[in-house]
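Hi P.,

Sorry for the delay on this. The queue was packed all week, but I finally got your sequence through. Input first:
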Amino acid sequence: MKHTSGIHHITAIVGHPQENVDFYAGLLGLRLVKQTVNFDDPGTYHLYFGNDSAKPGTIITFFPWANARRGRIGGGQVGVTSYAVPTGALSFWEKRLEKFNVPFEKTERFGETYLRFEDTHGLQLELVECEGGELNQWTFGDVTPEVAVKGFAGAVLYSTQPESTVQTLTETMGLEKVAEEGDYIRLKSSADIANIVDVKKTAMPRGAMGVGTVHHIAWRAKDEADHLDWQEHVHNDGYGVMEVKDRNYFKAIYYREYGDILFEIASDTPGFEHDESYETLGQDLKLPEQYEQHRERLTDGLIPFEVRELD
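Then the structure:
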């Protein structure tokens, strides 16, 4: 039986790229670690945010579609993306959300306190204190390593068939069921961060893809060889798994589990310093080889943005 170590990245659809960058870099203090284009739709940005060194388990990625229709969060999606902050940092984040006039509420789940709020485009987010995972060494504005988002704590999954989703997570992806409380089942992987998945037990009506929704959640494979093993493993478990896609920074395969959530499996290698150094991550628009000859035309169609401190 194979076991993924945890979440590699989460990808969502948002609106105007400047609003997206202002929220995740300017407010949340994440580092823009890669700007490229959607390899399947090169007229659209693909923006990656994470910790200082762009480690798997810290990466949230976005397709910004300005003026696109709003989606509807529901079954077949990540309902809530959970971020891990250092122990004792939650009070800092309460004050910071208040400073930027972002409404939030405190919720409890499995004995943990969460700050729940929405981003500019309606994505559901939450912050929770976690001991696991190393500090994010990125400083941006008033966000310093002592309080900075370390990466994902995990995610809350909304399924059209929750029992099937839990079965896929345990029997195919190798997560362990560790608790059940109220309307949630908690599963855990082996990583020290991005390792918690809470599945809502109530079946949810199918969501609608659009701005403010998560497109897919990606699980980790150790390297490209392990990634090919995962492809065979998923196929042998009876799922229709796609061919391997080269995303420059990782290899990717996709399949939809029976609760309608799109799962990706992504390799940890070669990583995000494949075409940029640690010091220059995210500074320039990087195009895959097949689009480099069209750089001028593609960049003319992309909306300019800048990473700016909001403090």
